[in-house]
Amino acid sequence: MLYRAKLADGVAWVTGASSGIGRAVALELSRRGYRVAVTARRAAVLDELASRDKNISVFPGDVTNRTEMGEIVTKIESTLGPISLAFLNAGLYLPQEREVFSPEIIARTFEVNVGGTVNCLAPVLEPMRQRRTGQIAITASLAGYGGIPGSLAYSATKAALISMAETLRLTLPDDGINVQVINPGFVETEMSAANGHFDMPFLMSAEAAAKRICAGLERGGFEIAFPRRLAWFAKAVRLLPYPLYLPMVKRITRRAQVN
Description:
By secondary structure, this protein is an alpha/beta fold. The chain has one domain: Rossmann fold, CATH 3.40.50.720. The chain contains 9 helices and 7 strands, in the order βαβαβαβαβαβααβαα. α3 packs parallel to α4.
C-alpha cells in the first residue's frame, strides 16, 4: 500500500493558500489535526489566516521563484519538521485569454501553473526520497481532460499537470512517495468569479471542495475528481473519436454561455 501521511510524520505544506481551494484545504487540514505551513505571494492575507488558526504557520513566497521555493522548504523542515504532505495548488487563470491569442498570457499561465509546480516539486522530492516517505498532491482540473474554447492556456497547463502526476505516480512509489492528482470541477473562488458569463454546473463552495480533497488524501487513491457526475461525464465524452468529440464540446460550451 502506498504511503499516506500521518499527523505524527510531519507537517503539511499548502501552496496557493491565500484564497480559494488552497486556503480552504489549509483550514481543513488544520481541523483534522495537521500542523500546516502555507505559502502564497500575499503575505498579509496569509498572516490573517494564521491569526485565526494556531496550527497554521506562514512562509510567503512566489512559486515562480525556484530559489525561493527551495529556501522555503528548507525553512519549513528546519523549524516545523519534515514535510510529509505537500499540496501543490498554486495556479492562475487569466480571463483575457478568452478574447485574444496572446503569447504573453500563455507563457504566464504556464510559468505559474506548470513552472510553479515544478519549482515546488524539486525541493520537496529530495528529502522525501531520503526519508523514503512522502505524499504529494498536485491540483489540476477537469479542464485538463480536453480542449475547451476560451481556455487554451489554462486547459493546456492542467493537462500537463495531469500527465506529470501520472508519470510521477508511475516512477516514485519505489522511493516510498505517493503522488495524487486533484481534478476539481467548478469551485467558488476568486478565479471562478472571473467566469461570470459562463454557466458553471455543480458549482460548490471551496469549503465543500476542501472536505472532498482531504478525504481523498486520506484514502490515498491516485485521482481525486469531483463532482463525480461532472467528472464521469467529462471522462465519457473524452473517449469519443474526434469527429464526435469536437462538435459535441463546441455545442456544450456554446450552451453554457450566459446571455
